[in-house]
Amino acid sequence: MKREFQQSLLDKGLERLPNVLIAAAECAPISKTGGLADVVGTLPKSLAELGMDARVITPYHRCVKDKYRDRVEHMFSFSVDLGWRSQYVGIERLVLDGVTIYLVDNEYYFGDKIYRGGQAEGEQYAFFTRAVLDAIPNLGFFPDVLHCNDWHTAMLPMLLRTQYGYYVHGRIKTLLTIHNIFYQGKFGFDFFRDLLRVEDRYFTPEFMEINGCAAFLKAGCVFADRLSTVSPSYADELCTPYFGEGLDGILSARRHQLTGILNGIDKKVFNPYSDPLIAKRFDKGHLKGKQTCKESLMFEMGLQAGPRTPLVAMVARMTDQKGFDLVERVLDELLDEQDMCFLLLGSGDKSYEGFMQEAENRHRGRVCAYIGYNEELSHRVYAGADLLLMPSKFEPCGLSQMIAMRYGTLPIVRETGGLRDSVVPYNQYTGEGTGFSFANYNAHEMKATIERALQVYRDEPENWNRLVRNAMAADFGFERSAEGYARLYIDLL
Ligand code: ADP
Ligand code: GLC
């Protein structure tokens, strides 16, 4: 155990590190739609290296059943009341990479999509909340800390305090991590009264009310013992009206209990030196393999250009958050004026998907839009691209830019949230930097930054190579993040 943690335990008169149960809607590699899953999958492994027993509880989604059914062991079952319905809960156990994952089974709620959208999604996770709380005493693992993530699990702290205080649960401390405040799980108060028996007195701005609705996430912000978010800059941003999405008041009031811990990535999964999914392995001393990865990726995706034509890529959920309106505004201009190729891997809003597909038709051989989610292809894109574009309107942390840097692909980012905290902009005077960045959410500012990056690629090969090596040397391993969480957990006791 690290000396620092030993000392903190001694100071608090504790004999052992806290047991932690991490509750989340998704967990990589078994279920994933975005970065939340990566964090939930990596955190317990890194905590184990610090000597901490951290386990995960997450829904037994269809995609998990399809792939892991044979490795899952049934533990016990019971029923919970959700409104007027009594619902089956099965608790299954899966051990993956030494981490115990408890899976909450119910075919009606989790037999289909991870997120159903609208009221149906609210009901999925109201059910999950109740199931987790009722399962805890029988897991054979009693958590000192319940670590909740985003709105889907943000009602846990409130119910724990208001409905389970007299049970063994009363001892459990809670941490809520906000990965994205844009999604809050807002519904009419009736929803909470009917499904989760929340008392009317909590329907006030002091507790759950927000703009005439009530929100899972607000309940978490009010009732969790501690709050955290996924980068120091986003912690500051959350306390402002522009980024706070109506929760800036409560978060400003609790600013001293809100910590920003920058995410990291799993360095074993994302490693250009050992990644079995890429065409040729490489590292920062041997970059020839990266060029092979690029040529093979361009061939695979039908991009027809010379090996020295820069390849700009995006790997993202296609939502407003990720800056696709900026891309829409200037992509044609860029392609008309510059020698470059553009590759997109993503899915989401139909209008953005449509725009990208049309751009591919207009610029055949220079633009490729792969609409869909493809984990394996994402590795080949990170390894084969020269630049990764991430012009987010807001970005709590962002993992894509970290993965890109690990593969020597330079990020072009807007200076917000975790993008600001992880990318060092190129300084032409000192040669320092790990990527390129721009300040304002403006399409032509983004375009100018892309042009600058293309110019360095084309005209300043020495500077370019230095940037690539700097990016690959930057350490975004999860160990540092895990230490941040371990400190918080101990602090909570
Ligand atoms: P967010 O969580 O907001 O989507 P992050 O950058 O934190 O953004 O994490 C996104 C994660 O999802 C990264 O691991 C990225 O590689 C992955 N990802 C996003 N879209 C796709 C896609 N279409 N196919 C494969 N992986 C994707
Ligand atoms: C959210 C954020 C993203 C962050 C991820 C993991 O999905 O949008 O910025 O990296 O959570 O914390």
Concise overview:
This protein has helices spanning 3-12, 35-49, 62-68, 107-110, 118-135, 156-163, 189-196, 216-223, 232-238, 241-244, 248-253, 288-300, 324-337, 350-362, 375-384, 400-406, 417-422, 443-459, 461-473, 478-492; strands spanning 20-23, 54-59, 73-82, 85-96, 99-105, 145-149, 173-178, 186-187, 209-210, 213-215, 226-229, 258-260, 311-318, 341-348, 367-371, 387-390, 410-414, 436-438. With 493 residues, the chain is α/β, with parallel strands linked by helices. The two termini are 18 Å apart.
Major β-sheet profile: 9 strands, mixed
Number of domains: 2
| Corresponding CATH architecture of the largest domain | 3-Layer(aba) Sandwich
Runs in which pLDDT lies below 50 for 5 or more consecutive residues are none
Q: N- to C-terminal separation?
A: 18 Å
Give the strand tally.
18
What is the CATH topology classification name of the largest domain? Rossmann fold
Tell me the strand order in the biggest sheet: 3-4-5-2-1-6-7-11-12
Write a structural description.
The protein has 20 helices and 18 strands. With 493 residues, the protein is α/β, with parallel strands linked by helices. The chain has two domains: 2-264 and 478-492, Glycogen Phosphorylase B (Rossmann fold, 3-Layer(aba) Sandwich), CATH 3.40.50.2000; 288-473, Rossmann fold (3-Layer(aba) Sandwich), CATH 3.40.50. The strands form three sheets. Strands 3-4-5-2-1-6-7-11-12 form a nine-stranded mixed β-sheet, sandwiched between helices. The chain has a six-stranded parallel β-sheet with strand order 15-14-13-16-17-18, with helices on both faces. Strands 8-10-9 form a three-stranded antiparallel β-sheet. Strand 13 (311-318), helix 13 and strand 14 form a beta-alpha-beta unit. The protein is globular, with a radius of gyration of 23 Å. The structure holds adenosine-5'-diphosphate and alpha-D-glucopyranose. Alpha-D-glucopyranose binds next to helix 2.
